């Protein structure tokens, strides 16, 4: 099955949910289970199934999407400008999840 | 220009040459990194100048935790002080609660920041100030209710640190999201006096000789985090190990959910809070600062976590007094027949309410009581120290003992 190489980063405290590691180089299936091109929405469920510390998953997702208060940057751009979870992943994309919820 | 020419709609709304990378929650503008940074800085400059926060030649302490808000605050103030020649000397003031594995790491960040921004750094520890680190407090009283101690200790610690530095003004990194949360919390509690005070950008309290201000009051958390990211600022993130699930949780998720639906909601709530403040009658004695905690545990390094919980618990002691003050104001709103009784009842609390500020008999800190809150808490802790060693069955000593000490107040 074809895959897409991407880099996923976590910061602002989220790295604690992902084996305390900021950067993850991943090979993501090019298509989601229903055959559509892999998008951010699919990536998030992929991360939930494969990478996140299961018992603290709720700190990352809520109601099927990224928890409010977590910023997503697609190649350093606000995901709100890129179609949010409908953005289709491209090879070598860099996806950064930053939590704004932790201490200041 | 980027390699591929993006369509006009994708360009930055300001410079119109580079691709937009940020959607501003406040204005819905699409900006590039450079324009965003400039706009973010100039808005804080505008906040500072509109409210005349700083005086040339003064020394101002930045309450620095090593977290995103205070790090961004320090960085922006450094930039603006240079760019607009405020002529202010900024000093970093950090409080070491004595929480191993939490504060010691974030203090390393503050130490690096001091070097990066060329600012003097003063670190003041709970152990040094009160004879108890938070680790020791928790060992004594357990994990429940320890935020009370941390909140009371922190508020005084910033004051004492500032006094030690000969400084009368401390700035903290509270942002628009924090203030919106506080507004919602005070509204739900029906706490008019605190609702009135929580939005003011400068808090001067009769119980403290040190003024506090919040230059990031109108800055969104999202933009603070993006600013830190784009400027590659060195900040530290973790939850306080003693308060992993924040009390503010529900107010916080409400604010974040509102932001998702309509980003301007946060600023709208801040503005509403300001409007409420205008509607609440001034309390006798003026300034409305007769209570000890002018803001709920302000300046907590752990942000959402300890700040909320600490403030909440610390404020409990003052809750009755505050409710009484509010009662007098509330009856004015009720217009029906029972009014006369209301009027009579109304006069007593107003007179009673006038607090006489004096000095704590133990440490000299300003207080309306015989002893300040910190000394009262320390007394409770010290009382339990020997008991803990005598009783072999430690179970009940920890928690109950601590609460006993508290209830004396």
TrEMBL record, chain A:
This protein's record includes keyword Nucleotidyltransferase: no
Pathway terms, separated by semicolons: tRNA modification; 5-methoxycarbonylmethyl-2-thiouridine-tRNA biosynthesis
Function, as annotated: Acts as a sulfur carrier required for 2-thiolation of mcm(5)S(2)U at tRNA wobble positions of cytosolic tRNA(Lys), tRNA(Glu) and tRNA(Gln). Serves as sulfur donor in tRNA 2-thiolation reaction by being thiocarboxylated (-COSH) at its C-terminus by the MOCS3 homolog UBA4. The sulfur is then transferred to tRNA to form 2-thiolation of mcm(5)S(2)U. Prior mcm(5) tRNA modification by the elongator complex is required for 2-thiolation. Also acts as a ubiquitin-like protein (UBL) that is covalently conjugated via an isopeptide bond to lysine residues of target proteins such as AHP1.
Cross-link Glycyl lysine isopeptide (Gly-Lys) (interchain with K-? in acceptor proteins), where in sequence: 104
Key word Magnesium present: no
Gene3D superfamilies according to UniProt: 3.10.20.30
Protein species of origin: Discina gigas
Subcellular location: Cytoplasm
InterPro entries: Beta-grasp_dom_sf, Mopterin_synth/thiamin_S_b, Urm1
Keywords: Cytoplasm, Isopeptide bond, tRNA processing, Ubl conjugation pathway
Residues modified to 1-thioglycine: 104
Family designation: Belongs to the URM1 family.
Gene name tied to this protein: URM1
Record-annotated membrane-spanning stretches: none
Modification comment: C-terminal thiocarboxylation occurs in 2 steps, it is first acyl-adenylated (-COAMP) via the hesA/moeB/thiF part of UBA4, then thiocarboxylated (-COSH) via the rhodanese domain of UBA4.
Origin superkingdom: Eukaryota
Protein name: Ubiquitin-related modifier 1
Automatic annotation (TrEMBL), chain B:
Compositionally biased spans, kind Gly residues: 284-311
Keywords carried by this UniProt record: Cytoplasm, RNA-binding, Transferase, tRNA processing, tRNA-binding
Sequence ranges assigned to domain tRNA(Ile)-lysidine/2-thiocytidine synthase N-terminal in this UniProt record: 60-239
Record has Cytoplasm as a keyword: yes
Domain Cytoplasmic tRNA 2-thiolation protein 1 C-terminal residues, every copy: 358-387
Chief localization: cytoplasm
Region entry Disordered, spans: 281-312
Pathway the protein contributes to: tRNA modification; 5-methoxycarbonylmethyl-2-thiouridine-tRNA biosynthesis
Protein name, as recorded: Cytoplasmic tRNA 2-thiolation protein 1
Species for this entry: Discina gigas
The gene coding this protein: CTU1
């Amino acid at each position: 099955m074809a895959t897409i190489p991407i880099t996923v980063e976590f910061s602002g405290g989220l790295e604690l949910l992902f084996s305390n590691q900021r950067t993850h180089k991943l090979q993501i299936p090019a298509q989601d289970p229903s055959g559509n091109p892999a998008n951010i929405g699919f990536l998030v469920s992929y991360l939930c199934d494969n990478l996140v510390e299961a018992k603290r998953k709720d700190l990352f997702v809520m109601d099927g999407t990224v928890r409010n208060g977590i910023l997503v940057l697609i190649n350093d751009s606000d995901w709100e400008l890129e179609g949010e979870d409908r953005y289709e992943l491209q090879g070598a994309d860099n996806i950064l999840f930053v939590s704004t919820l932790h201490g200041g | 220009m980027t390699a591929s020419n993006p369509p006009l709609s994708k360009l930055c709304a300001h410079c119109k040459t580079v691709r937009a990378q940020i959607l501003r929650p406040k204005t819905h503008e699409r900006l590039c990194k450079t324009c965003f940074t400039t706009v973010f800085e100039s808005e804080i400059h505008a906040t500072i100048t509109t409210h005349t926060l700083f005086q040339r030649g003064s020394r101002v302490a930045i309450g620095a935790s090593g977290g995103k808000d205070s790090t961004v605050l320090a960085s922006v103030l450094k930039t603006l002080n240079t760019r607009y020649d405020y002529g202010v000397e900024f000093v970093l003031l950090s409080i070491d609660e004595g929480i191993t594995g939490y504060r010691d790491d974030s203090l390393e960040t503050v130490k690096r920041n001091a070097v990066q921004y060329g600012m003097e750094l003063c670190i003041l520890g709970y152990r040094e100030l009160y004879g108890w680190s938070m680790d020791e407090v928790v060992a004594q009283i357990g994990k429940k209710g320890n935020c009370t101690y941390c909140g009371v200790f922190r508020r005084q610690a910033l004051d004492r640190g500032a006094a030690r530095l000969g400084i009368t003004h401390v700035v903290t990194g509270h942002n628009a999201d924090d203030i919106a949360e506080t507004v919602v919390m005070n509204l739900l509690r029906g706490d008019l006096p605190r609702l009135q005070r929580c939005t003011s950008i400068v808090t001067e309290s009769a119980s403290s000789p040190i003024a506090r201000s919040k230059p990031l009051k109108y800055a969104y958390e999202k933009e603070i985090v993006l600013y830190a990211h784009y400027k590659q600022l060195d900040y530290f993130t973790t939850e306080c190990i003693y308060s992993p699930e924040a009390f503010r949780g529900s107010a916080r998720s409400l604010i974040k959910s509102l932001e998702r639906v309509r980003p301007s909601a946060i600023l709208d709530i801040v503005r509403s809070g300001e409007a409420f403040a205008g509607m609440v009658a001034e309390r006798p004695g003026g300034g409305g600062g007769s209570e000890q905690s002018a803001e709920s545990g302000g300046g907590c390094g752990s942000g959402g976590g300890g700040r909320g919980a600490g403030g909440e618990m610390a404020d409990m002691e003052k809750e009755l007094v505050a409710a009484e003050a509010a009662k007098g104001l509330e009856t004015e709103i009720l217009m029906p027949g029972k009014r006369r009784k209301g009027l009579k009842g109304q006069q007593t609390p107003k007179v009673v309410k006038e607090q006489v500020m004096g000095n704590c008999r133990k440490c000299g800190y300003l207080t309306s009581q015989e002893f300040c809150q910190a000394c009262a808490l320390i007394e409770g802790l010290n009382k339990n120290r020997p008991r803990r060693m005598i009783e072999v069955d430690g179970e009940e000593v920890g928690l109950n003992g601590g609460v006993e000490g508290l209830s004396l107040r």
